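The protein record passed on for reference:
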Amino acid sequence: MTDDNTQRAIGELRGEMKGVDRRLGEIIDLIKSQDERSSASRARMYEAQEKTAREVRDLGGRVGSVEGAVAAMDPVFRRVGSLMERSKGILFVIGLIWLFMGGLILEGVKWIGQIVAKAVMGGP
């Protein structure tokens, strides 16, 4: 090889090396960009997880307070239930009295009708 060919080969190698260096720089920039996007994505994911964890803790506290309120109301519910059971018996008794009174009224109307019929018909 002559000096000109050697110099030309060296120039071509330098050009290729610059191209490789440029491509390597692009690859490094791409990897950095992907790393930054991944970091931002992970940060958003962790923030969402923390927000969900806070909401779960808040809901746990709210459920606990509702359970406490319901436990405090339990005696009232029991009292109302016993009053409702008693009221069923009272309503049954009132219904029987009403039926009995209705029967007496019908008998009274029937008796008055018989008296009127005897008076009009002239029977004994």
